[in-house]
Design goal:
Layout lengths: L7 E5 L6 H12 L3 E5 L5 E5 L2 E6 L2 E2 L5 E4 L6 H13 L3 E2 L3 H8 L1 H10 L7 E3 L6 H9 L3 E5 L8 E4 L2 H13 L4 E5 L7 E8 L2 E9 L14 E4 L4 H14 L3 E9 L2 E8 L5 H7 L3 H11 L2
Parallel strand pairs: 1-2, 1-6, 6-7
Antiparallel strand pairs: 3-4, 4-5, 8-11, 9-10, 9-11, 12-13, 12-15, 13-14, 15-16
Helix pairs in contact: 1-9, 2-3
């Protein structure tokens, strides 16, 4: 065991009042640690005399024992630089800079996990969408899923039902700087998926997420509801293999149950705790602190 009490822990979060941030903060304090919430957008990164420092609110930050990044999808690039600066200072981090980037870029993530034997729905990516219509006809069919490469909580995920709608989206994203992936829609999983929280190499909680009627996205943030679920050995294996492949210490792993078996949908390296804690009655925030104290 590396640490017990009095660790200095920074939670990198833009809002101390967010459920997940405040839960981790309270559990860390309860365990006797010096926990602070640091808004990573206000971190000023300094290299001086070949050493790495971070200025925050006009002062040089004290070097912590560990950081817990809670980086929003829309500030991934700067958040990654902040994490890397802490890493260069020799600070341990619950989510590494590489782990953040690998989990946030949905296609990079899929390239890596498929190499490790994890099954995913048929997925297509191109720098432009010139051939996308042919790919849909030949490989995906209607409806299919269109996703922004970066996005969480169901934002930037669309169910495309017909050719006219597809063309509208292809035109929109061809003209914008946003990159998208196209994915086969698994109809038998409509409005349902399974969220698995893994910390280290331990599955600490799992729930099935069920979308409201007429909504295909099951995210709790989009009005979905959760219920407890028993995982199969294959589903557990997918979650643990994904963690190893992406070198993550914490993640929300989203899978679907298809006719051909479980398939991985997405990986979230800053998973929300509210839905899963309330659904499963599991103290996930405490499990994070336990992991930090014992294993990290």
């Amino acid at each position: 065991m590396l640490f017990h009490n009095n660790m200095v822990i920074y939670i990198l979060s833009r809002n101390p009042n967010l459920y997940s941030t405040s839960r981790i903060f309270r559990e860390g304090k309860k365990a006797g640690h010096n926990v602070q919430v640091i808004n990573h957008l206000y971190c000023e990164l300094l290299i001086e005399n070949n050493s790495f420092k971070i200025q925050y609110e006009g002062k040089i930050l004290k070097k912590p024992d560990l950081i817990i990044p809670r980086i929003g999808a829309n500030v991934t690039n700067f958040g990654e630089k902040v994490i890397r600066h802490f890493e260069k200072m020799g600070v341990k981090t619950l989510t590494s800079s590489i782990g953040l980037i690998m989990s946030r870029d949905k296609f990079k993530c899929m390239q890596t996990i498929v190499e490790h034997g994890v099954t995913v729905p048929t997925t297509y990516f191109s720098d432009d969408l010139h051939e996308a219509e042919q790919i849909v006809k030949q490989k995906l069919g209607y409806p299919f899923i269109l996703k922004l490469i970066e996005g969480t909580q169901g934002v930037g995920v669309f169910l495309i039902n017909d050719e006219e709608t597809a063309q509208r989206y292809f035109d929109l994203y061809s003209d914008s700087r946003h990159k998208v992936i196209l994915q086969k829609f698994i109809s038998e999983s409509f409005g349902r998926d399974i969220r698995i929280i893994v910390i280290g190499q331990k599955i600490v909680a799992a729930m099935e997420r069920i979308a409201p009627s007429n909504e295909f996205r099951s995210n709790i943030h989009r009005g979905g509801r959760g219920k407890t679920v028993e995982l199969t050995e294959e589903e557990k294996g997918i979650a643990l293999t994904t963690m190893k492949a992406l070198n993550l210490h914490i993640a929300g792993i989203d899978i679907i149950r298809s006719k051909s078996g479980p398939q991985l949908l997405e990986v979230n390296s800053s998973p929300g705790l509210e839905g899963i804690e309330k659904t499963t009655k599991t103290n996930v925030a405490r499990a994070i602190i336990n992991y930090i104290e014992n294993d990290h």
